C-alpha cells in the first residue's frame, strides 16, 4: 500500500471507530498481524526441518544401496549428522535410566512386610473404660457410635 492509501484507511477508521476506540483497534490489528507473522515463521522453520530430514533420509538410502562403500563426501556428512542426531535423541533417555539404576543399587535390600497388622495392646489402646467404675466412658461410647 502506498502512503496515501494508508492515510485514507486511517481517516476512515478514525471516522468509523472514533478517537476513543481507534487506539484499541490498532493494538488488536497489530497483535493479530504479529501472531500471523510468527505463525508463518514457525511453519517455515518446521518445513525446512522436515525437508532437511527428508534429504538426510534420501542420502542414507543411497548410502545403504552402495553398501556403505565408496560414499561421497555429502553421504559421509549425512551419515555423521544422522549419528549425531540419534545420539542427541537417545541421550536424554539414557541419563535418567542410568540414574535410576544407580539409585536402586544404593538402596538397601527390601524386607518383607507382615501381612497381618500388629496386635493392639492395652497400653497402646485408648482408655475406653473408666478406671474407677469399670463402665465404658462417654468417649468410648462416642467412638463406637457411627456419625
Put the structure in a nutshell:
By secondary structure, this protein is mainly alpha-helical. The protein is 71% helix and 0% strand.
Question: Unreliable runs, pLDDT <50, ≥5 residues?
Answer: 109-113
Q: What radius of gyration results from the CA coordinates?
A: 38 Å
> Strand pairing plus helix content: what structural class?
mainly alpha
Mean pLDDT: 75
Structure commentary:
The longest helix is centred in the first third of the chain and has 63 residues, at 3-65. The protein starts with a helix and ends with a helix. Mean pLDDT is 75; it is low at 109-113. With 147 residues, it is mainly alpha-helical. The chain is built from three helices and no strands.
Task: Describe this protein with a few key phrases.
single chain, 0% strand, mainly alpha, 3 helices, 147 residues
Explain the layout of strands and helices:
Elements: H1 3-65, H2 73-106, H3 138-144
Helix pairs in contact: 1-2
Amino acid at each position: 500500500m502506498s502512503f496515501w492509501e494508508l492515510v485514507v484507511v486511517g481517516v476512515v477508521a478514525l471516522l468509523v471507530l472514533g478517537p476513543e476506540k481507534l487506539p484499541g483497534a490498532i493494538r488488536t490489528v497489530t497483535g493479530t498481524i504479529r501472531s500471523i507473522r510468527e505463525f508463518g515463521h514457525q511453519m517455515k522453520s518446521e518445513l525446512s526441518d522436515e525437508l532437511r530430514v527428508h534429504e538426510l533420509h534420501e542420502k542414507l538410502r543411497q548410502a545403504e544401496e552402495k553398501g556403505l562403500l565408496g560414499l561421497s563426501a555429502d553421504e559421509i556428512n549425512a551419515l555423521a549428522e544422522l549419528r549425531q542426531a540419534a545420539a542427541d535423541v537417545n541421550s536424554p533417555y539414557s541419563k535418567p535410566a542410568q540414574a535410576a539404576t544407580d539409585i536402586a543399587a544404593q538402596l538397601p535390600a527390601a524386607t518383607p512386610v507382615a501381612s497381618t497388622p500388629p496386635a493392639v495392646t492395652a497400653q497402646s489402646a485408648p482408655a475406653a473404660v473408666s478406671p474407677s467404675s469399670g463402665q465404658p466412658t462417654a468417649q468410648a461410647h462416642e467412638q463406637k457410635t457411627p456419625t
